[in-house]
## 1
Amino acid sequence: YKLEIEQLNERYQKEFELIANRILETKTEKFTALNKTNLREILDPLGKYIVEFKTKIEEVYSNESKERFSLGNEVKRLAELNLKMSEEAKNLTNALKGEAKTQGRWGEMILESILEKSGLVKGREYFMEHQLLDAQGKPLLSESEGKKMRPDAVIKYPDERSVIIDSKVSLNAFTRYLATDELEEQNKELKAHVDAIKTHINTLSERGYDDYQLALDFVMLFVPSEAAYVAALKAEPDLWNYAYDKRILLLSPTNLITSLKLIHDLWKREYQNKNAYEIAERGAKLHDKFVGFIENLEQVGNFLDKAKERYTDAHKQLTTGNDNIVKQIATIQKLGIKNKKSIPNHLLSDADSESTEL
């Protein structure tokens, strides 16, 4: 009889351990691993979106703060640039001796120097000696000369349109005007200087830049010498209107710097608007992600509640009722079986208290 009890006890103990291990350990480990995986899949993308969203906002406000702070320095820098350009233009004009190719290249250098300091980015907002193409991608030809259209500079606007700049106006007469001290010769060369600018205005007007569908309805004619520009307008005050009637804007270094500043401001607002749109788009994605996170988190809470209920049910099977498992095993132990391990005291206490209440 004692041997049967020992065998029965051993069988109960093995079954109990097997059931307890399967229910409490296996289920718990699988549930924990599943929850860790689910939480990681939820939290990792959410954290990434939050970091990107924060970085973008900080970048936008940082740029705006820097731009407001540097406004005074920008005005000062433009004034210094204008003074420097005027001095360089006067010195170089005095040095020129009538070589048209040299004058043209010098005008391009002054133009490019101003563009480089305008805040616009070469290859993105402006292009030097840019080949103009038609809607089919073929090179445009000048109506008057039959040559490919390759203006000195092309500046893009945010609306995809472009403004064309030419800087090859002749300053031969103006250099002769500076070189003479005789009043009669000065008047003669000054008139020749005005006529040279008019000739170039007419040439640009006949070149056919209107065929370039992305171009604005005017072309900028850049006079690289402030002194030459002022002298021409002083000699013929209606010269600017003469050019404007032919859809040509006559510009000096000062006028060009101001115009480029306005264009740069347009681009700055364009990029700020794009950043604002991207922030709004990312914010919408972050909102949707956060809602999904809350839904999944609630599911995790439900799983935890169900796991707690299952644990409570399993614990009741161990300690609740007169014939609970713990009490039966304890009774078998009292009958004198040999066992290496004992039931934990807190389980025995729970089983006794449950039995007493019943």
Note: The chain has two domains: 2-61+278-357, 105-251.
## 2
Amino acid sequence: MLFRLKNLYGVFYVMSEGVEKESSGRWNFVGAYVLLYVDAGQVVRVISSTFYGWSPATSTLLQKVDIVWVVNAVLGMIVPRPVFFILAVITVVIALLDTVYVIKLFSAGSVQKLFPVKLLNFMVGTLVTIGFSTVIKWVFIPFECLISNNRSISYYLNYGADDSCTPFAYPEVLISAPTILVAVLYMSFALLSSVLTFALNPLSRKPRAQCTGRVEFLYLSYKISLSLLVYFTVYLTPIVTNVFMLILLIVVLYNHLCIMPFHHHAINVLRGGIYLTFIWMEGASVVFTAVQRSQGVNSVDIQANSLPQLLQWLTVVGMPIAFALGGYLAHRNRDRIHQTLDRLYGECEAKKLTLTMGGASTTTTIRRQRVRDVASVMPTPSSVTITRRSNFDKFFDTSWNGKRAFPTSVSASTTARALLYRRNEHDLLFLNYIIMRGLEEHPYSDGLVMLHIKFLRFVFRDATEAAEQEKMFNLSSKRLAVDDGYVLYALKRKAQQDSKTSSIGQDGMRAIDLMEFDNGMEKARKYHLACITSMKGFWRLLSRTTLKQTAVEDMMTKLDEYDHALKGAHKEYSWMLEKYNTSAALLHSYATFCDSVLNDELLCMKKRVQAQAMESGNEDVMDDDKSAAGGYAQSAG
């Protein structure tokens, strides 16, 4: 099956692997802040539309906050609206087809070209984060006439003779029906990308972590609802839609404050301010629509000096205050987590001191027992075990809730991540204690187990114990969440990748580089075999006692095939020996090529000696071919 979950995991793993490559510089953070502003500006524009109770004067003012809308308005003076529709549909279709193509390549087990993967990475960055609200608006241009005075598709199809708004009549339905399908696929693609696009390594300095996807999924669901509910205002009153979106935004902000999803505290603060600003606007929208309904007026009929307009100007003035308050809430939440960490650290130190100083006996047995007790307070990372309390223990332990440090597993995970982001190497044992305490209090939490596994592999650097935990977790019969399943797949893939890169002799290679290496080796061996086959065919024809009339032509064909295969083998071996000159398998393969095709015994022996030196770890035996003029390309002919 083409769309198996493992194939999707593989696509997002390779596409997001560049996130693990740190590129230092402040421009990364500046770019993230710009994206936050662009995204927030689009949402502000949609919230403040007249369909949700805002007056034309206020809506016109807040539209200018959206940079994408400003560019769109300038281009709209010279470009017809159907052009934006065609551009949006083509862009979305290219992204979807590129996704299908890359999935097909992964299901086949090789990627011959890197461009499709890079294009998909670019499409996710632009269509999902930067321009989602604008692109989805352009995709729904055929239906705009249902809720606005914009010209319908019929007007353009009939060259201005008919301007009736009938998007579901023939022939307009031939455009409307595929448009709905494209929009559904686009929204599904965006939701999946928001969950699976993150940095796997907890030590990454990039903004997005695994838990980021769960909040981003809710936020993207809100943006989708905000864009779609406009078309249902005929059936639903603005009060109902505004109340629904207000509740959804409160859920988003609550999860944001509980999880603190981004690696960087500054982005968490900014997102907290942005979410509370949206809540302020949505709450004001509920009040606007209620006041307008009580006065019997529509949003488009609001007068300049009326009470509804005055309320809207006050709301606009209060938006910076709401933003500052939201940022303060996020910052205050981080301080509260740090206070919890300080309290737990004090408890650990007090318990260690009590166990160390308690009692006056100095016998060897008691001293050994004290050492074990002290070590049990902050055990080594590999000593963490998951102990599940039975129903009997839960029933009779009436003081358990009072002894718990973390009310939820999310709180334990957030606390552990906050401690990690202090970036103090001396806190690693205490970090392990936090994970142990969280697993003891919430042993059935998949999120904590996955965090523990990632910490073992990347933070505590205990790959063996991490592999054991992954194996145990894989054997469980649970249905994992999509992002947890992706993490298990990515960790397994990364372990295999590390093992293979060590055999090649180059550490830190990406999956796409390994695919490039495998593809190059496959091509080189294919040309190598073609050379041998062509020469065998040539000598077989020459050895015949009776020759046909076409024998000379057949022999020349075999020589042409040999020449073509030889050039192809030279080309593949040349660039591979330049880029992967520490691969023993490649050197062995090239040595065989020199022996069986080039008939160069001296070069063959030299390459085999180099390959054996690589396998034994003695790199001093390597000669200077790769640094001489022409390098390996020259030795390859």
Note: The radius of gyration is 32 Å.
